[in-house]
């Protein structure tokens, strides 16, 4: 099994302890843990949804990013990745034990950043390591000086609710299928880019959607009126249906993302400790897409 579905299914084995209950619908994404949110006909804890935290750099800083060989299996190489002042990244703040004391550490998911940013440190013949998008191998920041370079911010309005920003072509059938997506993906990145990606079958497994985008653009403006999220860019995005709205300026083209509010639920196996999963259905420029949003938590 390739990477996207594997990460989702393997994560289901780690979720435990929540039975689904009746509840009231959530009007919008909550950033509060331990909250009950309505997902279709189910109510799930926000603890089990993709409740990322977001951090913005207060000055230009560097972090370590992991890259792996693109065409053959081999070891990871670490490179210093420069994040300009104002860059937003997904991650979360936790603690680690140093001697008898607990000290803060910030975990940053570097692989969710834009290709525009990641390419600045990418060695020839290498690709960002997608497993750094998981809790297994995130970028860890522990020094006090580096921690002061990040401040907590709200989830950017351009990010789809409870999504890591990766949306895959297809409707309900594709969302619940165990088959790995291998066609087209749209990615909205925490640092404010929208990318159209075509799966590259020539690279090693799991890296097909991590190559150079077919088209990409910096998001210069966002307008959100549920269920529509409108992303504006200065340039057209070939391969995506955008609308020209201005003849000049930085917000000349509009890409409309519609949340269909028809979440798809794959039932897990509580007896084997496997949680069920949720995907949200979207339309991007009128074309159906789906994105993984989390787990139902129903396992033993």
UniProtKB/TrEMBL annotation:
Residues 1-28 form the signal peptide. Keywords: Signal. It comes from the Bacteria. This is MucBP domain-containing protein. It comes from Levilactobacillus namurensis DSM 19117. The lineage of its organism: Bacteria, Bacillati, Bacillota, Bacilli, Lactobacillales.
